[in-house]
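Deliverable D5.2: sample structural annotation.
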Amino acid sequence: MKIFIPPNSPFLTTDTRTKRWAIPYHPECVNGRIDVLLERNSNALAGKSVVDVGSHIGTFAWAALQLGAKRVHGIDVEDRTVKRCEDLFLQEGVKKSNYKFEVGDVFEFLEGVEENEFDTVLCFGVMYYTTEPHRLLKLMAHAAKETILIDTFTAAYSAVQGKDAPATHLHLTEEVLNLPMMMVAPTQAEKKDYRLPEYFDRKGRDLSLTTLPTHALLELWFESLGLRWEQLDWSRHITRPCSFKDLLTPEQKLASHWADVYASGIRVSYRLET
């Protein structure tokens, strides 16, 4: 596996997400995700115009450029992360003509672009933070001339994360998770270095909602929008077979491998063709 982001890269040393159990931003996980999500889909990047929906500090946008993308355009709701992204690209010596990053609402941004304006759309770790994931998917299909690459949590995540998880996992079975349905769960609006835009007050706390469709519902949505889809293969990085039931307790999470979320179906990735 090619190492795109070395341990001393500022894309890692300045990231606040290094120690979380699910999708930690450490070298093995970040490079493994670049391998599956981008390098193995390099024909959707080389010579292409790319928009990164929820670009954060630009890690995947930068990797897309390394894989030959003609130009990347990132959109993120948090001005702090966009500023950090611009600083990192300047530090890495990336030509300014090859990228643009802006602060804004992803829905408003996508509603304002022309049909087929970008060859490829990246959407990694964003869909579950919006209350309208199907609408987001429809807007991305409008913006993409060729390809959409998605990486997102599924309904199984509601059984392993958050205060409601212990009550949730008692009722979830593999059979239920194969149904076309969606779980909705609360989450803290304030994260370490960003704040979710859609939040509300509940008992003195600012909360937001995560929307977590099953893979069956995601695939039904793809078909309803006329998208051809292929689920991406994580077997190269998976170290063991497991289910969400193997990731319930703090001890299980602490002992887990980063790819367990993919092995268990808690997280899933797709390549979509318009």
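Annotation notes: The chain has eleven helices and ten strands. The mean pLDDT is 92.
The annotation will be released with the project's public dataset once the embargo ends.
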